[in-house]
Design goal:
Blueprint: H1 2-5, E1 10-11, H2 12-15, H3 18-23, E2 39-43, E3 47-48, H4 60-73, E4 79-84, E5 87-92, H5 94-102, E6 107-113, H6 117-129, H7 136-149, H8 154-161, H9 165-173, H10 179-187, H11 192-198, H12 204-217, H13 221-232, H14 247-260, E7 263-269, E8 274-280, H15 284-294
Parallel strand pairs: 1-2, 3-5, 4-6
Antiparallel strand pairs: 2-6, 4-5, 7-8
Amino acid sequence: MKDKKRAMGRGLGAILSAESKATINSATDEGADKFVGNIVEVQIEDIYPNASQPRTYFDERALNELAQSIRNLGVIQPITVRKEGGKFEIISGERRYRASKIAGLASIPAYIRLVNDQELLEMALVENIQREDLDAIEVALTYQRLLDEIGLTQESLSQRVGKERSTITNSIRLLRLTPEVQNAIRSGEISAGHGRAIISLEDPEAQNILFRKIVNEGLNVRQAEFASTQLKNPEKAEPKTKSVLPNSLKRVQKSLADALEVNVEIKTSGKGDKGKIVLDFKNQDDLDNILSHFRL
Protein backbone atom coordinates (compact mmCIF):
# COMPACT_ATOMS: atom_id res chain seq x y z
CA MET A 1 0.00 0.00 0.00
CA LYS A 2 2.76 2.42 0.90
CA ASP A 3 4.56 1.71 -2.39
CA LYS A 4 1.36 2.51 -4.22
CA LYS A 5 1.12 5.88 -2.50
CA ARG A 6 4.57 6.86 -3.75
CA ALA A 7 4.11 5.62 -7.33
CA MET A 8 3.21 9.06 -8.66
CA GLY A 9 6.78 10.38 -8.39
CA ARG A 10 10.20 9.03 -9.33
CA GLY A 11 13.17 9.73 -7.10
CA LEU A 12 15.59 12.42 -8.22
CA GLY A 13 18.36 9.86 -8.28
CA ALA A 14 16.50 7.93 -10.97
CA ILE A 15 16.38 11.05 -13.16
CA LEU A 16 19.61 12.95 -12.51
CA SER A 17 23.09 12.29 -11.24
CA ALA A 18 24.26 13.92 -8.00
CA GLU A 19 26.42 16.32 -10.02
CA SER A 20 23.66 17.51 -12.32
CA LYS A 21 21.27 17.78 -9.40
CA ALA A 22 23.41 20.55 -7.97
CA THR A 23 24.26 22.34 -11.23
CA ILE A 24 20.89 22.61 -13.00
CA ASN A 25 19.43 25.96 -12.00
CA SER A 26 17.90 27.41 -15.17
CA ALA A 27 15.91 26.21 -18.13
CA THR A 28 18.98 26.58 -20.39
CA ASP A 29 21.26 24.28 -18.35
CA GLU A 30 22.04 20.85 -19.74
CA GLY A 31 19.62 18.25 -18.39
CA ALA A 32 16.99 20.82 -17.39
CA ASP A 33 14.51 19.17 -19.77
CA LYS A 34 14.49 16.16 -17.44
CA PHE A 35 13.02 18.33 -14.71
CA VAL A 36 10.32 20.03 -16.76
CA GLY A 37 7.01 18.18 -16.71
CA ASN A 38 8.17 15.57 -14.19
CA ILE A 39 6.73 14.93 -10.76
CA VAL A 40 9.53 13.58 -8.62
CA GLU A 41 9.99 12.46 -5.04
CA VAL A 42 12.10 15.07 -3.26
CA GLN A 43 13.62 14.49 0.16
CA ILE A 44 11.89 16.54 2.86
CA GLU A 45 15.28 17.58 4.21
CA ASP A 46 16.14 19.17 0.84
CA ILE A 47 13.04 21.40 0.85
CA TYR A 48 12.66 24.75 2.60
CA PRO A 49 9.78 27.29 2.76
CA ASN A 50 9.59 30.40 0.63
CA ALA A 51 10.50 33.39 2.83
CA SER A 52 8.13 35.56 0.75
CA GLN A 53 5.18 33.18 1.22
CA PRO A 54 2.10 35.43 1.57
CA ARG A 55 0.47 33.02 3.98
CA THR A 56 1.89 33.44 7.48
CA TYR A 57 -0.64 31.57 9.65
CA PHE A 58 -1.11 27.80 9.59
CA ASP A 59 -3.80 26.35 11.85
CA GLU A 60 -2.18 23.63 13.96
CA ARG A 61 -5.32 21.55 14.28
CA ALA A 62 -5.94 21.62 10.53
CA LEU A 63 -2.30 20.67 9.89
CA ASN A 64 -2.61 17.64 12.18
CA GLU A 65 -5.81 16.57 10.43
CA LEU A 66 -4.07 16.84 7.05
CA ALA A 67 -1.09 14.92 8.43
CA GLN A 68 -3.41 12.06 9.44
CA SER A 69 -4.93 12.06 5.96
CA ILE A 70 -1.44 11.90 4.45
CA ARG A 71 -0.56 8.96 6.69
CA ASN A 72 -3.63 7.13 5.37
CA LEU A 73 -3.68 8.16 1.72
CA GLY A 74 -0.34 9.79 0.96
CA VAL A 75 0.14 13.21 -0.64
CA ILE A 76 -2.56 13.38 -3.31
CA GLN A 77 -1.53 16.71 -4.86
CA PRO A 78 2.22 17.36 -5.36
CA ILE A 79 3.71 20.57 -4.08
CA THR A 80 5.47 22.97 -6.46
CA VAL A 81 9.10 23.93 -5.81
CA ARG A 82 11.90 25.73 -7.58
CA LYS A 83 15.46 24.49 -7.90
CA GLU A 84 17.95 26.47 -5.81
CA GLY A 85 21.40 24.88 -5.94
CA GLY A 86 21.07 21.45 -4.37
CA LYS A 87 17.93 22.47 -2.45
CA PHE A 88 14.33 23.20 -3.36
CA GLU A 89 12.29 26.27 -2.36
CA ILE A 90 8.53 25.98 -2.07
CA ILE A 91 6.42 27.93 -4.54
CA SER A 92 3.07 26.50 -3.45
CA GLY A 93 2.02 23.74 -1.08
CA GLU A 94 3.73 24.75 2.17
CA ARG A 95 0.75 23.44 4.12
CA ARG A 96 1.15 19.99 2.51
CA TYR A 97 4.90 20.17 3.17
CA ARG A 98 4.39 20.97 6.87
CA ALA A 99 1.77 18.23 7.27
CA SER A 100 4.05 15.72 5.53
CA LYS A 101 6.79 16.49 8.06
CA ILE A 102 4.32 15.94 10.90
CA ALA A 103 3.27 12.67 9.25
CA GLY A 104 6.91 11.54 9.29
CA LEU A 105 7.40 11.31 5.51
CA ALA A 106 10.99 11.24 4.30
CA SER A 107 10.09 12.55 0.84
CA ILE A 108 7.20 14.24 -0.90
CA PRO A 109 6.06 14.38 -4.56
CA ALA A 110 6.94 17.72 -6.13
CA TYR A 111 6.62 19.46 -9.45
CA ILE A 112 9.88 21.29 -10.11
CA ARG A 113 9.98 24.72 -11.76
CA LEU A 114 13.07 26.64 -12.85
CA VAL A 115 12.17 30.26 -12.10
CA ASN A 116 13.90 33.44 -10.94
CA ASP A 117 13.15 35.38 -7.74
CA GLN A 118 10.54 37.63 -9.34
CA GLU A 119 8.74 34.72 -10.96
CA LEU A 120 8.83 32.85 -7.67
CA LEU A 121 7.20 35.71 -5.75
CA GLU A 122 4.60 36.28 -8.47
CA MET A 123 3.65 32.60 -8.58
CA ALA A 124 3.36 32.44 -4.78
CA LEU A 125 1.22 35.59 -4.65
CA VAL A 126 -1.09 34.57 -7.48
CA GLU A 127 -1.49 31.09 -5.98
CA ASN A 128 -2.37 32.76 -2.69
CA ILE A 129 -5.16 34.81 -4.30
CA GLN A 130 -6.81 31.70 -5.71
CA ARG A 131 -7.41 30.29 -2.23
CA GLU A 132 -11.00 30.50 -1.00
CA ASP A 133 -10.30 31.08 2.69
CA LEU A 134 -8.69 34.51 2.39
CA ASP A 135 -10.36 37.49 4.01
CA ALA A 136 -10.85 40.70 2.02
CA ILE A 137 -7.85 42.45 3.58
CA GLU A 138 -5.50 39.54 2.81
CA VAL A 139 -6.65 39.65 -0.81
CA ALA A 140 -6.10 43.41 -0.97
CA LEU A 141 -2.61 43.11 0.53
CA THR A 142 -1.71 40.41 -2.01
CA TYR A 143 -2.92 42.56 -4.90
CA GLN A 144 -0.84 45.47 -3.59
CA ARG A 145 2.29 43.31 -3.32
CA LEU A 146 1.87 42.19 -6.92
CA LEU A 147 1.65 45.83 -8.00
CA ASP A 148 4.54 47.06 -5.82
CA GLU A 149 7.01 44.17 -5.79
CA ILE A 150 6.40 42.61 -9.20
CA GLY A 151 5.72 45.91 -10.95
CA LEU A 152 2.48 44.82 -12.58
CA THR A 153 -0.11 47.33 -13.74
CA GLN A 154 -3.70 46.87 -12.64
CA GLU A 155 -4.55 45.87 -16.22
CA SER A 156 -1.90 43.14 -16.39
CA LEU A 157 -2.79 42.03 -12.85
CA SER A 158 -6.41 41.71 -13.96
CA GLN A 159 -5.34 39.35 -16.73
CA ARG A 160 -3.01 37.38 -14.42
CA VAL A 161 -5.64 36.60 -11.78
CA GLY A 162 -8.77 36.57 -13.95
CA LYS A 163 -10.53 39.38 -12.11
CA GLU A 164 -12.11 42.58 -13.42
CA ARG A 165 -9.92 45.63 -13.00
CA SER A 166 -12.70 47.36 -11.03
CA THR A 167 -12.73 44.41 -8.60
CA ILE A 168 -9.01 44.82 -7.99
CA THR A 169 -9.32 48.60 -7.58
CA ASN A 170 -12.17 48.27 -5.07
CA SER A 171 -10.24 45.61 -3.17
CA ILE A 172 -7.07 47.70 -2.86
CA ARG A 173 -9.11 50.69 -1.66
CA LEU A 174 -9.83 48.75 1.54
CA LEU A 175 -6.19 49.30 2.53
CA ARG A 176 -7.02 52.98 3.05
CA LEU A 177 -9.18 52.00 6.03
CA THR A 178 -7.83 52.57 9.51
CA PRO A 179 -6.05 49.58 11.16
CA GLU A 180 -8.98 49.18 13.56
CA VAL A 181 -11.45 48.78 10.69
CA GLN A 182 -9.14 46.47 8.72
CA ASN A 183 -8.78 44.22 11.75
CA ALA A 184 -12.57 44.11 12.12
CA ILE A 185 -12.92 42.91 8.52
CA ARG A 186 -10.22 40.27 9.05
CA SER A 187 -11.94 38.96 12.17
CA GLY A 188 -15.37 38.95 10.52
CA GLU A 189 -16.81 41.56 12.87
CA ILE A 190 -17.95 43.56 9.82
CA SER A 191 -18.07 42.69 6.13
CA ALA A 192 -16.08 44.05 3.20
CA GLY A 193 -19.32 45.76 2.13
CA HIS A 194 -19.29 47.71 5.39
CA GLY A 195 -15.64 48.54 4.69
CA ARG A 196 -16.52 49.99 1.30
CA ALA A 197 -19.13 52.22 2.97
CA ILE A 198 -16.57 53.39 5.53
CA ILE A 199 -13.85 54.06 2.93
CA SER A 200 -15.97 56.83 1.39
CA LEU A 201 -14.92 58.85 4.45
CA GLU A 202 -11.37 60.12 4.04
CA ASP A 203 -10.84 61.28 7.61
CA PRO A 204 -9.55 58.43 9.83
CA GLU A 205 -11.50 59.63 12.87
CA ALA A 206 -14.71 59.76 10.81
CA GLN A 207 -14.00 56.21 9.63
CA ASN A 208 -13.69 55.01 13.22
CA ILE A 209 -16.87 56.86 14.25
CA LEU A 210 -18.85 55.14 11.49
CA PHE A 211 -17.24 51.80 12.30
CA ARG A 212 -18.28 52.02 15.94
CA LYS A 213 -21.80 53.06 14.87
CA ILE A 214 -22.06 50.01 12.59
CA VAL A 215 -20.97 47.67 15.37
CA ASN A 216 -22.99 49.26 18.18
CA GLU A 217 -26.22 49.58 16.19
CA GLY A 218 -25.85 46.46 14.05
CA LEU A 219 -26.19 48.40 10.78
CA ASN A 220 -26.40 46.51 7.51
CA VAL A 221 -24.43 47.69 4.47
CA ARG A 222 -27.18 49.94 3.12
CA GLN A 223 -27.64 51.58 6.50
CA ALA A 224 -23.88 52.03 6.77
CA GLU A 225 -23.84 53.78 3.39
CA PHE A 226 -26.63 56.11 4.53
CA ALA A 227 -24.78 56.83 7.78
CA SER A 228 -21.67 57.61 5.74
CA THR A 229 -23.67 60.13 3.70
CA GLN A 230 -24.96 61.71 6.90
CA LEU A 231 -21.42 62.14 8.21
CA LYS A 232 -20.25 63.72 4.95
CA ASN A 233 -23.31 65.90 4.27
CA PRO A 234 -25.48 66.10 7.41
CA GLU A 235 -27.69 68.86 5.96
CA LYS A 236 -28.54 66.82 2.84
CA ALA A 237 -29.05 63.45 4.42
CA GLU A 238 -32.76 63.43 5.19
CA PRO A 239 -33.90 59.99 6.27
CA LYS A 240 -36.67 58.41 4.20
CA THR A 241 -39.88 57.50 5.94
CA LYS A 242 -40.40 53.77 6.01
CA SER A 243 -42.04 51.13 8.14
CA VAL A 244 -40.09 49.93 11.14
CA LEU A 245 -38.98 46.32 10.87
CA PRO A 246 -39.37 44.04 13.86
CA ASN A 247 -36.09 42.94 15.44
CA SER A 248 -36.46 39.41 14.08
CA LEU A 249 -36.49 40.70 10.47
CA LYS A 250 -33.68 43.15 11.22
CA ARG A 251 -31.53 40.21 12.23
CA VAL A 252 -32.45 38.34 9.05
CA GLN A 253 -31.68 41.44 6.98
CA LYS A 254 -28.25 41.87 8.59
CA SER A 255 -27.40 38.17 8.28
CA LEU A 256 -28.22 38.19 4.56
CA ALA A 257 -26.23 41.39 3.98
CA ASP A 258 -23.20 39.99 5.79
CA ALA A 259 -23.36 36.65 3.99
CA LEU A 260 -23.89 38.08 0.48
CA GLU A 261 -21.81 41.25 0.97
CA VAL A 262 -24.40 43.37 -0.85
CA ASN A 263 -27.13 45.74 0.27
CA VAL A 264 -30.20 43.84 1.51
CA GLU A 265 -33.55 45.42 2.34
CA ILE A 266 -36.60 43.64 3.66
CA LYS A 267 -39.83 45.53 2.90
CA THR A 268 -43.09 44.62 4.59
CA SER A 269 -46.64 45.71 3.90
CA GLY A 270 -49.93 45.54 5.69
CA LYS A 271 -49.62 43.74 8.99
CA GLY A 272 -46.07 42.70 8.28
CA ASP A 273 -47.09 39.15 7.34
CA LYS A 274 -45.92 39.59 3.75
CA GLY A 275 -43.31 41.57 1.89
CA LYS A 276 -40.24 41.25 -0.29
CA ILE A 277 -36.46 41.06 -0.05
CA VAL A 278 -34.45 43.42 -2.26
CA LEU A 279 -30.82 42.56 -3.11
CA ASP A 280 -28.73 45.37 -4.59
CA PHE A 281 -25.67 44.46 -6.64
CA LYS A 282 -23.26 46.96 -8.18
CA ASN A 283 -21.31 44.79 -10.61
CA GLN A 284 -21.02 41.31 -12.09
CA ASP A 285 -18.83 40.10 -9.22
CA ASP A 286 -21.58 41.00 -6.72
CA LEU A 287 -24.14 39.14 -8.84
CA ASP A 288 -21.91 36.08 -9.24
CA ASN A 289 -21.36 36.05 -5.47
CA ILE A 290 -25.13 36.13 -4.83
CA LEU A 291 -25.82 33.35 -7.33
CA SER A 292 -23.07 31.15 -5.87
CA HIS A 293 -24.85 31.13 -2.50
CA PHE A 294 -28.02 29.85 -4.15
CA ARG A 295 -26.21 27.44 -6.54
CA LEU A 296 -27.90 29.01 -9.58
